[in-house]
Design a protein that fits this description.
Layout lengths: L7 H6 L7 H17 L3 H7 L4 E10 L5 E12 L5 E8 L4 H17 L6 E7 L7 H14 L9 E5 L5 H15 L20 H22 L11 E5 L3 H12 L3 E7 L2 E4 L6 H11 L9 E3 L1 H5 L5 E4 L18 E3 L8 H9 L3 E3 L1 H4 L2 H15 L5 H26 L3 H20 L4
Parallel strand pairs: 3-4, 3-5, 6-7, 6-10, 10-11, 11-12
Antiparallel strand pairs: 1-2, 2-4, 7-8, 8-9
The structure holds nicotinamide-adenine-dinucleotide (NAD).
The site of nicotinamide-adenine-dinucleotide has 23 residues, from helix 8 and strand 7.
């Protein structure tokens, strides 16, 4: 690649990919990091748009006999470092631009934590709460078939995300395997253990979210900025799904007082601290938090504004924005979700001394253990849960320390530092591989 600036940039970043705020924020953040590190402008331009995307329509026979068509997407943002990797989201607001932004974040995440994987993402525009189990299965299988030429253990490996779980991955693996004539577990990660999943995968993202909070507390202590103890702190968790429920549990077992958690319908709050295992059991039984007896009901907006030490946004993107950031009182925020804080809100938080552990670092635990699952599957040799957790902790600690040292080197916040770290590795690889043809 030549090092001259490339006028194509504006066209790429204002095209079909960039209609969502999440995409616009991701490009803004990347630009900021790129300018700070003085990156080759051609590399920066290339990273602003995905490599490839597929848009499909998925016909599904519903339980009432009617046929409904759903929109689905699979986007590979960058595959310089290895096969694409990223979840499949079932959510009513999924669109091409949002999925493209999430694929970009996956590229950055995999590069940051040193995995030999690229970035991808997929999604279906559907409200998963309104589908029966047979409808979920039919949708997942037909979607897999529609994108089958784009995925594979050496091409692009999906995983669960919002609205999907291990069962969806089992259906995807089965559909893919049926089309090839033999079992191919490596086509997805986040599978149930019985069909080649990894111990510790379900908990990995939430665990990682808490590991980095512990590192942040340690760093603040070392720098003489604060002397926090997790067991004396309080926390609120926005989004009580696969990531948020585990993060809340991990905080609680370390003695932190989790005073509020929320889901799509609203939040529950108990200033004395919630009994997290009991809330998890209630959620499992009722599928939402409505009616939980030992707490008062508040809104998601009120949860964001609670006077707590730690806030874990673990639901969706664009939750903390210029409109509500001034209400945030937490001192440490660990981004369990992808893109929960807009660029404007991020700048405000940094100016006001809030430690924000960025998504591509904070929630990388999931993709790290997905990578372990892929490796274990390829070797047909499975590790015990302690081994998985130890290796996860090791990779997260290394990535955290690297981001902290880049933040010192460039005098910037952790978000920019994480992107710089990530792009440093990725741009070297891109330049070494060169531009084809
Ligand atoms: P999930 O579907 O298991 O849980 C999502 C939670 O958010 C649910 O409690 C849901 O009710 C709530 N929610 C959805 N929309 C909401 C809204 N508008 N307001 C408030 N709450 C809302 O999903 P998950 O897998 O836990 O993923 C959560 C976030 O973490 C997403 O941003 C996802 O991309 C990110 N993430 C997930 C993983 C993983 O391993 N699952 C890994 C990395 C990042």
């Amino acid at each position: 690649m030549s090092r001259q600036s490339n006028p194509v940039v504006t066209e790429l970043s204002s095209g079909i990919w960039s209609t969502s705020p999440l995409y616009q924020n991701a490009v803004l953040d990347l630009d900021l990091a790129g300018r700070k590190m003085g990156i080759d402008p051609n590399v920066l331009d290339r990273l602003k748009a995905p490599k490839r995307a597929m848009c499909v329509t998925i016909p599904v026979r519903m339980d009432d006999g009617s046929v409904r068509n759903f929109e689905g997407y699979r986007v590979q943002h960058n595959t310089t470092l290895g096969p694409g990797k990223g979840g499949i989201r079932f959510h009513p607001e999924v669109n091409l631009s949002e999925v493209s932004a999430l694929a970009m974040l996956m590229t950055m995440k995999c590069s940051l934590v040193g995995l030999p994987l690229g970035g991808a993402k997929g999604g279906v525009r559907v409200d998963p709460r309104k589908l029966s189990r047979p409808e979920h299965q039919a949708l997942t299988r037909r979607f897999t078939m529609e994108i089958i030429n784009m995925i594979g253990p050496e091409i692009d490996i999906p995983a669960p995300d919002v609205g999907t779980d291990g069962q969806h991955m089992a259906w995807m693996m089965d559909t893919y395997s049926m089309s090839k004539g033999h079992a191919i577990p490596g086509v997805v990660t986040g599978k149930p253990i019985e069909i080649g999943g990894s111990l510790g995968r379900v908990e990995s993202t939430g665990r990682g979210v808490v590991y980095v909070i512990e590192h942040a507390i340690e760093l603040l202590r070392k720098k003489g900025k604060a002397n926090y103890q997790l067991k004396e702190m309080s926390a609120a968790v926005h989004g009580f799904g696969k990531v948020g429920s585990v993060a809340a549990h991990e905080l609680a077992i370390r003695g932190c007082k989790v005073v509020a958690v929320s889901d799509f319908y609203g939040a529950i709050y108990n200033p004395k601290g919630l009994n997290v295992p009991e809330v998890v059991a209630y959620m499992d039984a009722h599928r939402n938090l409505k009616g939980y007896p030992h707490a008062e009901v508040i809104t998601n907006e009120q949860l964001i504004a609670l006077d707590v030490d730690i806030l874990v946004p673990a639901a969706i993107d664009g939750v903390i924005t210029a409109a509500n950031v001034k209400n945030v009182k937490a001192k440490i925020i660990s981004e369990g979700a992808n893109g929960p804080i807009t660029s404007e809100a991020q700048a405000y938080l940094e100016e006001h001394g809030v430690t924000v552990i960025p998504d591509i670092l904070a929630n990388a635990g999931g993709v790290i253990v997905s990578y372990f699952e892929w490796v274990q599957g390829m070797q047909q040799f499975f590790w015990n849960e302690n081994e998985v957790n130890e290796k996860l902790a090791e990779v997260m600690a290394k990535a955290f320390n690297q981001v902290a040292s880049v933040a010192d080197r460039y005098h910037c916040g952790m978000k920019t530092a994480a992107l710089i770290s990530s792009v440093e590795r990725l741009s070297k690889a891109m330049l070494l591989r060169g531009l084809f043809p």
